[in-house]
Amino acid sequence: MKRGVKVKHIKHNSYNFCYFTRGKPGVQPSILMLHGFSLSKDMWLDTIKYMPEDIHVVCVDLPGHGATTRLLGDSYRAPSEPGR
Fold this sequence. Notes:
mainly beta
């Protein structure tokens, strides 16, 4: 797959999280990359190409984004500021 990543899924409560990973956990710390509002894990593909391939990287689609479950009735919008 592009950039050597593997797409995986894991269930937790009512969510089926989608994430991709590259490398394997080892002596060096792993890197967890989280996307911003209205984006997905795919935003990191161009960034991880600059990281050494022996670094373990995990990029997660947060709930309601990308390929992770979107539950009916839950809001995935950014909270509004009071007074606006």
